[in-house]
Specification:
mainly beta; Jelly Rolls
Length: 350
């Protein structure tokens, strides 16, 4: 399988998410706030502590543009304790949106009762099919299979691993850029809970299968090229772990091309709290600033690395999102519970 990008929500405010490339409708804590109550997280037996993002009704959040692919799957885990009776333009549950076409493939929510709704599948903004009744008060795993890569778009919706619509097509134009978004629609205060996103870049992937995304924080410095100075203390890894805040970072005042730092995480079984039977991929996420610089992230296994795309990082005050992903160990073979993920950030131009 080809996991392209993934994100589990953590203990970060909307203001922090915005600084990391997300686009919330507001950064007010009245409308967005992290939650970690037992019923408010999408979890499994043995899981480490988890969070979700609480969203107020009518508020939206867009993923970073770095997350988007124009063909594959986008999935998310979602729960709403109640359902707002509002029916209007702010009800996309899950939307793969093409920025250059200003249209999407999406599941649109329609109110039925205080605890339930139905979803309408749209392809190229054209209605295709309505689902049967969905209980909003339960955690559900929504998977949207879509293709926006050519003159014919397609879309199909799955819930909890089962197809709930047929696959449909519609004439359009190839998407060259985009993002994903969802809205809050619970009638209570921040009672829509959003746990995670996963993006797959291949229609052949089994993206409908229920999966969990788990954060692995670096716990040791492996090496560095250049002179990196943590904002506090002496360890680079200690200033880039959870929760993510802009005041914690490691900095290189006089950077040079190919300067880098390499960090190790615990092994995957320790990260997940269990020995997982199936690992679809590992993603390295890096948030960096430095006007005029380009850089890339890389994911490794202690022997080899897979590099992500080279990106321009913004000026200080915000952080550009870079990522690298690998469905298999970079040195070959499947990821295993004993594998130690290795993270790398490297400058390409300065």
């Amino acid at each position: 399988m080809s996991v392209s990008w993934a994100w589990p929500f953590g203990n970060e405010s909307a203001a922090v998410l915005q600084s990391l490339g997300w686009i919330p409708s507001t950064i007010s804590a009245t409308y967005f706030a992290p939650k970690n109550g037992a019923a408010e997280v999408f979890s499994y037996t043995g899981s480490p502590a988890r969070w979700s993002l609480g969203i107020a009704p009518g508020q939206y959040i867009y993923t970073p543009s770095d997350s988007y692919v124009n063909k594959g799957w986008v999935t998310m885990a979602h729960r709403a304790t109640t359902v707002s009776a509002q029916n209007g333009g702010f009800l996309s549950l899950l939307n793969a949106y093409s920025s250059n076409n200003l249209k999407g493939v999406y599941a649109y929510r329609t109110y039925v009762s205080v605890g339930s709704f139905v979803l309408d599948l749209y392809v190229d903004n054209v209605f295709k099919e309505r689902t049967t009744l969905i209980d909003a008060r339960q955690w559900h795993y929504y998977a949207l299979k879509y293709d926006q890569s050519g003159a014919t778009w397609s879309g199909q919706l799955y819930i909890d691993g089962v197809a709930v619509t047929a696959s449909y097509t519609d004439a359009s134009a190839a998407s060259t850029a985009g993002f994903y978004f969802t809205y809050g629609f619970s009638s209570g205060t921040r009672e829509t809970s959003l746990a995670q996103f996963i993006v797959y870049d291949d229609l052949a992937d089994a993206g409908e299968k229920v999966r969990w995304v788990t954060r692995g924080n670096p716990t040791s410095d492996v090496s560095e090229v250049g002179v990196w100075t943590p904002s506090t203390g002496v360890d680079n890894y200690a200033v880039v772990d959870d929760p993510l805040v802009l005041t914690d970072y490691t900095d290189e005042p006089t950077p040079n091309i190919a300067d880098n730092q390499v960090l190790d995480c615990p092994d995957i079984a320790t990260i997940c709290g269990i020995t997982p039977a199936n690992i679809d991929g590992v993603v390295a996420l890096v948030f960096a600033a430095g006007a005029g610089h380009t850089a890339h992230a890389a994911i490794g296994d202690g022997t080899s690395f897979v590099n992500g795309a080279v990106k321009t990082v913004p000026a200080a005050g915000s952080a550009g999102a870079l990522h690298a992903s690998s469905a298999l160990k970079p040195s070959g073979g499947a990821w295993a519970g004993t594998t130690v993920p290795r993270l790398k950030y490297e400058l390409d131009t300065v």
